[in-house]
Write a structure and sequence with these properties.
- By secondary structure, the chain is an alpha+beta fold.
- It contains 8 helices and 12 strands.
- It folds into 2 domains: 149 residues, Jelly Rolls (Sandwich); 68 residues, Orthogonal Bundle (Arc Repressor Mutant, subunit A), CATH 1.10.10.
- The chain has a 4-stranded antiparallel β-sheet with strand order 1-8-3-6. A 4-stranded antiparallel β-sheet has the order 2-7-4-5.
- Helix 1 packs across helix 2, helix 6 crosses helix 8 and helix 7 crosses helix 8.
- The longest helix is centred in the middle third of the chain and has 27 residues.
Length: 225
């Protein structure tokens, strides 16, 4: 098998593993693969920047990233974390608007980029892909509504616990626990919508209950509890 064929199969295998493309037909997936541009980014690289025009959407093939917005006082506010298989940058392409947030890599990452023109053309040609994008956008809206509901009806400790459960991932070195990314108390406070002091108290209570532990700036959730 030649190098071009190997890369093509590798990209197709990556696309099949991404939830967004699971229901897309093989022919549409192959067409999509021909338009993707592989880009590599080092750790802490800014892939898209809030307020700037957007010409590409991205799929994370390898690595992790964070979604951030600038607060009124100029601080970086973390909105979400993105894992391999996630995609971002599509809203700027669909609405012809500037980026609503920045995305920065948390580790060395491999991304698959798709231009605005190719993205729109593929949506027109592929009903399966259009439906998959609509379903993903609906899922995002559902998550946003759930976050708004939690801010209205859940206490800070419950919101903090739910945040850790959402962003923690299995520890490759110890399958009996989950690990969060490195976070400061202020970043956690921004994500759950409260003050840093209140988050500090909530984290202390979660630790005292045995539900949570900490290693440096990362938090540990035992899988068996």
């Amino acid at each position: 098998m030649n190098t071009t064929s190997s890369i093509r199969k590798d990209v197709l295998d990556s696309l099949r593993a991404i939830p967004l493309f699971r229901r897309v037909s093989e022919s549409d997936l192959e067409e999509l693969a021909t338009h993707l541009i592989e880009r590599r980014f080092p750790k802490n690289a800014t892939v898209v920047e809030e307020g700037l025009p957007g010409d590409y959407m991205y799929v994370i093939r390898e690595g992790r990233a964070k979604v951030t917005k600038a607060s009124e006082d100029g601080r970086e506010k973390i909105m979400n974390f993105l894992e391999a298989g996630a995609f971002f940058g599509d809203m700027a392409l669909l609405g012809d608007e500037t980026r609503s947030a920045s995305v920065k890599t948390l580790e060395e990452s491999v991304l698959l980029a798709l231009s605005r023109r190719d993205f729109i053309d593929l949506l027109r040609q592929s009903p399966d892909l259009s439906l998959a994008v609509i379903e993903e956008l609906a899922n995002r809206l559902r998550e946003t509504n759930e976050q708004a509901r939690s801010l209205s009806f859940q206490g800070v400790e419950e919101r903090t616990r739910n945040l850790f459960e959402r962003i923690a991932r299995p520890d490759e070195a110890d399958t009996a626990r989950m690990l969060t990314p490195a976070l400061t108390h202020q970043q956690i406070a921004d994500m759950v919508g409260t003050s840093r002091e209140t988050v500090t108290r909530s984290i202390k209570q979660l630790k005292e209950s045995g539900w949570l532990a900490q290693e440096g700036k990362r938090y540990v959730i035992p899988c068996e509890r």
